[in-house]
Predict the 3D structure of the following.
Amino acid sequence: MASHGHTPAALAEADQTATARAAAPPAHVAIIMDGNGRWAAARGLPRVAGHRAGVEAVRRTVRLAIEMGVGCLTLYAFSSENWRRPVAEVLDLTGLLRHFLRAEIEELHQRGVRLRVIGDRSRFDEDIQRDLVAAERRTAANANLTLVVALSYGGRAEIVAAARAVAEAALAGRLDPARLDEAAFARGLSTAGLPDPDLIIRTSGEQRLSNFLLWQSAYAELVFLDVLWPDFGQPHFAEALAEFARRERRFGARPG
Ligand code: FPP
């Protein structure tokens, strides 16, 4: 009997991982985690069960990102539009976030993960806001992976906020509009200091950006996978990185 490590599937998986590693991994991978509800519905379970399984996929994905040498991972955990979901589901999602912040931060810290949050955090309960600040502070010096969690995030709102700041600076005489360039504008975005995403993955077969990182995605490779987010794992991450590597080789402008 072949051991699990030598089954054809395991060998193919190891090979895919090796291929994904051989090419330079993207410095920044961003993921639109979609399909929790459909995953639950397919099993006759309540939607919250899908979100819970989605958190497990988050834990897996963070570990994989570190293993694969990705420097920055952004996860779209809660969009500004998600507040319009039924109150019970919003409570489930914010409850999972609260639990995640309390239960997972220590492990993230041990793994050398730096947490950063983008989005309008002022809309969350105060205890969550406090935990977010504490988690960012606790992990601020870590360097294995920057985990950016987009919470109550919307790309258009982010661009408007940056534009407002620029307009106010100009009105106050602190900025000459003629000197505003893309780099200066980007410093007003919530992602200031982070590299733009090289690769954006969306699960569940939908092929939209849904207001995610609109400015930052200008040159990103987009990969849409048919897997539902709770099922996302090593083979899917490797497949997305391999697809990214193929596109890099084809267009070849960047080192890799
Ligand atoms: C999309 O599935 C997913 C979300 C709206 C939320 C993603 C949240 C998590 C994975 C858990 C919370 C994360 C953290 C970091 C604590 P959907 O509900 O839109 O699925 P559907 O399109 O199949 O209905």
